[in-house]
Amino acid sequence: MRGQIFTQVLVFFIAAFLFVLIVFFGYKAISGFGDKQELIAYTDLKLGIEAGIDQLKTNHGNVDTITIRSPAEEICFITAELPSDNVGKPILKPTFRAKTGNIILLKDGAIYNKFYSPDIIVVEDASVEPPQGTYCCYKTERAMKLRLEGYKGKAVISSWDPQLNPCDQ
Predict the structure, then answer these.
(1) Are 157 and 79 in contact (CB under 8 A)?
(2) What is the pLDDT of residues 66-108, one digit of tens each?
(3) Whole-angstrom Cα distance, residue 114 to residue 46?
(4) What are the residues facing 64 on neighbouring strands?
(5) In 10 A of CB 148, how many CB atoms?
(6) DSSP 87-122
(7) CA–CA separation, 38 vs 36, rounded Å?
(8) Residue 59's domain spans which residues?
(9) Number of structural domains the chain divides into
(10) Three-class SS of residue 77?
(11) CA distances (Å), 110 to each of 49, 79, 142, in order?
């Protein structure tokens, strides 16, 4: 009888220990899914934009549209040759000046991620001859429709419909 109680207590503690291990490692694994999902979304965004730019920069006058989703709240495109004093948002200037990012994703008012593409010209209205500029798109959790056009070895990025912000499409 005494040995049976000891065995039951031992089995209870082993079961409790296993339960705690499963809950701990399960929580750790599940909490990592969100980070991996954001990394995948960022990689998909980057590859989609780079593929569109590479395809059109050598085809002067060709136009295509890309639909992208961003893991950030805001995405800013900056023409590579733009003087850093002309970059609109102060938070973007150091990154742009260091040539580490001209496609910059912002989340909670801070730089979330960035990458650099020397082959973009940013315009707000595609019907105008390409001036250099900065364009930021807010509320990017929905799909954005961007217009890419080959222009003198670069890709011009603008809204697909000049009447709409790409965030509204």
Answers:
(1) no
(2) 888 778 888 888 887 777 666 767 777 787 777 777 888 888 8
(3) 9
(4) 148
(5) 23
(6) -SSGGGHHHHHTTS-SEEEEETTEEEEEE--TTEEE
(7) 5
(8) 2-168
(9) 1
(10) strand
(11) 21, 20, 20
